[in-house]
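ping. complex inputs:
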Amino acid sequence: MKDRLEELRTEGLQALGAASSLSSLKASEVQLLGKKGALTTLLKGVGALPPEERPLIGQLANQVKKAFAEKVASVSTALKEAQIAAELDSAGFDSTLPSAPLTLGGAHPVQVITRELEDLFLSMGFRVADGPEVELEANNFDALNIPADHPARESHDTIWVQEAAGETPGLCMRTHTSPVQIRTLREAGAPLRVIAPGRVFRQETQDATHDHTFHQMEGLVVDRGVGVPQMLHAMNAMIEGVFGKHLKTRIRPGYFPFVEPGFELDAQCPFCEAGCSVCKGSRWIELIGCGLVHPKVLKKSGVDPDIYSGFAFGVGLSRLAMLRYGIRDVRWMLGGSISFLSQFSE
Amino acid sequence: MKISLNWIGEFVDLSGYSPEELMDLLTLHTTEVEGLAWFADEIQDVIVGEVISCIGHPDADKLSVTEVSFGGEGPVNVVCGAPNVRQGLKVAFAPLGASLPGGLKIKKAKLRGVQSIGMICSEKELELGDSHAGIMELPSDAPVGARLVDYLDLLDPVLEVDNKAINHRPDLWGHYGFAREFAAILKRDLAPISLFEDWPTDPSAVNVSVTEAEVCPFYSVTSFAVPVSSNSSPLAIQRRLLAVGQRPVGLVVDLTNYVLLETGQPTHAFDAKKVAGQQLHVRCAAAGESLITLDEEIRSLTPQDLVIADSSGPVALAGVMGGSGTQVDASTQEFLLEAASFSATQIRRTSHRFGLRSESSARFEKTLDVSLPVLAQARFAHLLLEHCPEAAITGAPVPVGDSTPEEIHLTMDVARVAERLGLSLSPEEMAQTLDRLGFPVTVQDGDLQVQVPSWRSSKDIRLPVDLEEEVGRLVGYDQIQPKPLTAPLEPTSLSQEQLLSRRLATCLVGSHCSYQTQGYSFLSSEALQKWGLSLEGYVPIQNPVHEGADLLRKDPLFSLCEQAVGNEREVSAGVLFEMGKGYSARMDSTGEPQERHWLGLVSWNLNTLGANHVKGSFRSLRGIMEDLLSRAGKNVALAEKTIPPLSPLGNPSRILTWTSGPQETPVAQIFQIHPALRSDFGFVSQDVSLLLLDLGLLSQALDAPFLFQAPARFPAIKVDVSLALPKAVTFAETEAALRQAAGKFLSNLVLFDQFEGEGLPAGFKSLAFRATLRSSDKTLSEKEEKKYLKAASRIAEELGGHLRS
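pong. complex structure:
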């Protein structure tokens, strides 16, 4: 038995010492010391020994066990250190390997801008309204101070769903988001702060800069004591929000029948300082049509223009997206190409 | 519209400002200037020359060999083909190296063996006229060596103004209106227009009558005589017309154009000899009458058209275009000048009906100042006598109607205007500003009493608020300081539907590899019919943008499928979705077509996309839908009964519907595309599944209650069973039976495999489920596992099959 133990000690220490990994070390340890391990099995024979030999063998067995445990501890430490050293060694690790291609989705650029503007205006106490895209002629034109025969109707080349006849009201694809002004004002009354993003339609032949379907956003503020200074402040905030930096702005006379006075708002070209192809050398880009709400519009929507005033604005969301991302052809917008859509994220 | 700054300079001193500065000033204070171009800048190299000798070309009959002197250098040899070239003539000469319009550069040339160094130019070559018959002849006192553009004072900065931007400003449809603006902007004097005043006592020999005073409030005719020799107008007139793009044609017509471009008031000249019965009658056309207009088109008239008629019939389409029969030409010796006011609506309708827009109709459409005709005829008479002293005014104007403009007086609340504009101006400052624009103003009790001048009262300025712009734009909008809005702090948020739309879009883009797109709202009825789809319920468009866009879509799936097909070549598997409107022919209570806000989605080969590979895109799409509905947090349930597809594109037997509310309203659906339409669309993929979800209805559904469940503390055991079942047995009934049989410890049950074929009896399929068993108060033992296996075995047998493992 003693010889067997000595033999086992030698074999065991050798096996443990030969372990090349923590798992093979563990396996060897189990083989030696486990419930069915070699040492355990061997020691089962102790009962058969003469009583006087037993203490000696017991002592020896403990020594072997202890030697094994020490060996396990030392090999284990060595292996762990070796593993850490190996992981710290840069050799054999190529950090330049690419990831597997990710399958991702993408947002629509107009949607991205719309969301940003919605959040911006929400933070300034506006709500976001929606209106029908097939609109009553009365809301699209008349209530906005654009009666029949008004020359402004000519610049709104209208797609008609149903021309007015007798009792039947005229219906058109809305040519602008401005009728949402009327709807919201009638429904909610003053004071009011609202924006209305959405799609609008015009009789346009499609080319790189024109489409018959595009996106606009309307805004309306009606309250006491609201004038041009408040309008300018809100517009500046919007432009800074879209382009991520402060841009100089200016207003100049512009004509929209539902505002008086009416303005075109230009922003300093975000892409150049000395004139470029985007601003056509002028250093300004026309961005927003705006103005103080015409008293006739307020009156028609049931708001007293002697008490309340307000401003309204309209901005082309498709145009903003094209400007911000440098998209030169509007036809990408409703084309649905994944190679286009995959470039935008929220 | 083109605005010549030289012309403006006749009325306002523009000195000290560059054309670019003037362009910016006009943009900031009046209307946008779209461009600046110099008239005659392409002929700046052309020099006044003199033909000092001229002999025939030895080898060509039609050519002459000349010597031309043109200042500094000695005379040069020039070969010229014009019939009117002769010794002593002063000519427009393009020397060696000069550039001409169209990019032509003068080089040395040999013409039939004779050296030619330079070119003697015709008007046409210089773009100063149409005449190509010969070279341009300059007066004998023209200074040799001077630049032609200097000698003739041709260089002219011309501003381009967008016509649409001045639709509301009838006063800006002539140069004088812009001169008035510049005078006000620059704070300089505005010179009056020189007018003829000394009319003869006898009226013109013409009988003038107006039947339709409603649409022609004023009509005036004046008779003139001109010598035949004076047909072409002088250069002073021509260069103005040319600079703004108007082709000179002859003295009388050029002057009517000149007056139109200067004052904004159209006039028309009739050859007096061609007017029958010495009468001009303003009336509606009779049915059946027709007129050949100046463009030689025969116009069939209706009683809605206003015409000018002589005793034989219509001679002009009032305010739109004259007739060719009474046209003034080179032989005209006497003519009648019409100056009139016509109703804007009348002119617009006639002009639209004939598709005939002229400089005249464009102006009348704007509602012109009713006092302008009187001014225009006096201006015409002045110019005619100035430029053709031999001409005569043979009779005083014969007016019919009233040319007195409506007087509009407005009261301006100074404090309110100052507040609205954000400009602190005193009443006096505001008054001065308006005065610069020609508005007579008095200050009364701190407010302004303003009279609107005739050129602004016809349409543009009717209300006190209309004056705000006048004050603001002249003072300068750059003086206004932005101020933040102020209001009580109230929470604002998106509506339920808006929030839901956002959440679902984020989920699709972020978790389901989907691309958000936008598609057109229009469909082609021809395509629908060709594919055998009914047109019922679609809203038709009366004037479609193109043939393929004559209906409104009911949902976004059609354009989504088209876009998917467009992507298939590049992208073998994908998901596109749109959140957009669908339109129905059913009217709602306000008489408008109903609109539904849809989430539409198309997927192709979805099962090969992303990490969760499941057999069949339909099942993958169900997973997406379940995720969407769970994120929506709404109370919806899978429909028990089969509901037909919400879109005609759906395959009615490959469909799942979710409903909400006691009425079990369908709110969402997934289906495979109809196999016939799949090939009609041109899909390559055989595996195309679609999703429709009504965002409006879903947002109205009740919120699903949310209850937190504490994570389990005791370990779970997972048991896999595989059931061999007859094919007709559905997953749903198997799953339900298993769930029921599994008992209270079942916390989750998922299908992890499904197959048919090898190892199974014919007509059988295999469904493999993984059950998660868990207790909240103890660790489960093999006993529970065995119990579950026994129950599964029983279920399998009850369903006509057996447990496989």
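Residues 782-798 of chain B form the longest helix (17 residues).
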